[in-house]
Please model this.
Amino acid sequence: MKNILEYILFLFFSFLCQILGLQLSRKFSALITLIFFYVIPIRKDVVIDNLKHAFPELSEKEIRNIAYGSYKSFAITLVEILYLPRINKEQAKDVVKINNLDLVDRKEKEKNGLILLTAHFGNWEYFAISTGLNLNKNLSVIVKSQRNPYVNNWMNKARTRLVNEIVPLGISIRNVYAALLRKGIIGLVADQRGPEESIKLDFFGRKTSVYTGPAILSLKMSSPIIYGVAVRQPDYSYKVDFTEISKEDLPDDYEGKVKLLSERLLIHLEESIRKNPDQWLWMHKRWKH
Model:
């Protein structure tokens, strides 16, 4: 019953965003920010704690400003996702400006498969859809299932309505390998905390467990990794600059290769966050173990 009630509420807000239109819905996100930052402060303590550890040189006021900006960014992303059933191909394609799409095109033509890596930054859902449309290819997007099965089904239909296919995380890693064996492109968001037993690397000066999946996939399948995030602009468009993660000068042993490649990925992520700290999702307990 709880899942059904949540889903009904979810559908109501999605319908409201579609009626209001994208521009008006984005303005409505300001109210959502105020509610969840001041009235019902969801995970606010986690956000503040994360920011204090990541930016110890900043004042309390500066930390709170970034925290508020992060809630605002997430609220904008949320209403943009709720609008997905109404967005058309041209809107979805043009909302993300990719400065060097030719890099992805060149690497895809090497026929080793391709790992397209992003983060919970800006709008990662628009990132995947727009990239697929601009490449005119279906990305195999690896997703973590939502707790609510009704919302999960809604999300997956929205993600694949215009382009792309979904590969649920945890069902079968063979599906991921199969996509790379077909010389396809997989899309992956891999900026959250890894399992406790995973390798520990420095991230904003603190050790944290790292999800090594992208590095392992890349090494086993000889697939290049292209990293990029969708940075929100003042006009609510997004800009992406893709970067290939270097595999040069890796150590001889396999574990050393996984560690160094994962470290290089983490360095790029930290650089992106430092440039626009308010656009990353700080609500996750990234340094739990």
